[in-house]
Amino acid sequence: MSATIALQLDPFALAKELSGKQFIDGEFRPASSGKTFPVINPATGEEVAQAAFGEAADVEAAVAAAVKAQKEWAKRGARERGKLVAACGAALGERVEELGRLLALETGKALRTESRVEAGVLADMFTFFGGLAPELKGETVPFNPTMLTMTVREPIGVVGAIIPWNVPLLLMAMKIAPALVAGNAVVVKSAEEAPLTVLRVIQIMNSILPPGLVNILSGFGPECGAPLVAHPKVGKVTFTGSVETGKIVYRTAADKLIPVTLELGGKSPMIVMADADLDQAIGGAIAGMRFTRQGQSCTASSRIFVHDSIHDVFVETLKEKVNALKMGDPLDEATDIGTIVSPQQMDRVQSYIALGKETKGATAHALSAMPADPKLAKGLFVQPHLFTGVTNDDRIAREEIFGPVCCVIRWTDYEEVIAAANDSEYGLAATVWTRDLKVAMDAVHRLEAGFVQVNQNLVVQPNLSYGGVKTSGLGKEATLESMLEHFTHKKTIIINMK
Ligand code: ADP
Ligand code: MG
User: How many Cβ atoms from other residues are within 10 Å of residue 6's Cβ?
Assistant: First the structure.
């Protein structure tokens, strides 16, 4: 069915095509006020589209459509819903190139290393959750022999999903795929920095799903996100973003007494033991710090604790490897590292680099060359920075920067390094690098984080529970259990047979 939407591989043309639109009740619609805001190519500073400026009236329209569509959707068998969601995965899987290019254009994430990769895993999330539909099972309960007692899993109704700009496709999929399979309708609020590619995804999904089941609004937090969370007919909110906004969402949800899932920030430790395989650990630092994504990741390994005995060689090799990464036009296949997403984020990153330079005992290492192409002179490029000589008490080691700024912290005592790794308000992810299984097991049990890996640094994927502890969030995503816990409620039914 999605064949009716023509493939558009020119991201500039596609951006224009999607300009000024939201997707509500099965159709493209401008904001009800007619207002828009610009979408900027961060590699050049040029405007590529306008996005609809969604507000409360648009929230109202989208939620009303979702309420109506959900009632019919919930009546369908779970497997039928699952098949349709999996069909969305198949349709999206055919458009990896289209989606990857548009994502690179609007976010500045390099096409080859980041945007195409993200577009590629998008389909998998829908396929995975589509296949889990038959697992929406209840239980029978041995309550009384004369009473048939059972539980069933019912959908919540309308789910509000608020997403960030850094990995918008994957994070949206992690929310809406399980919500839909469980029988809910969704209203997504995209991030103001990246409204276009997710809009395209919803358009494609809508060619398979009934109208009104998936809706997407673009707009800013206070004007569009806040009324979505506060809407009386929204029965569940799932949010990924900053701690500060997460708390605002949680407070509003508390007033309505509705459940929330929050995936927030991180300052994830990577602990390199003296016996670690150095090449493996360096590769892990590059992948973990998401250098090719300019560090714009909540799980970024932004605190790298390296044992004193290998510290200097680790730093030198890491510097060489990051220096070899090519910064440039995100749409160029030769580019490893693209841009920062927005001028606001750029200011934030630069202020942290300045802070690092003023930090007592710290040394800044600026890596990888700035692009030479004059067309990119206004682009939001910033050199990845490594800071050595940092302690875990320094602000650059404590605060989430969400940019290519990485602290390397020297350590000698095992107990101290575990304590330092845990001495953070965050607890999203952690990695341990050692050949010693005993040490690895001890460390993984003691690290306060939701996602802990040894000798590798994989990104989130279907069937691996993902989410943090402490201020990193509330609730886990990407598994069967997360679908059951977060997108259904359990109803107990007792039938008296006497
Ligand atoms: P960032 O640092 O990336 O801006 P935010 O937490 O502000 O992180 O943004 C994540 C998402 O939350 C975005 O879609 C943003 O528009 C939305 N948002 C921001 N403020 C609010 C709010 N008060 N209520 C609901 N959503 C909001
Ligand atoms: Mg914000």
Answer: 7
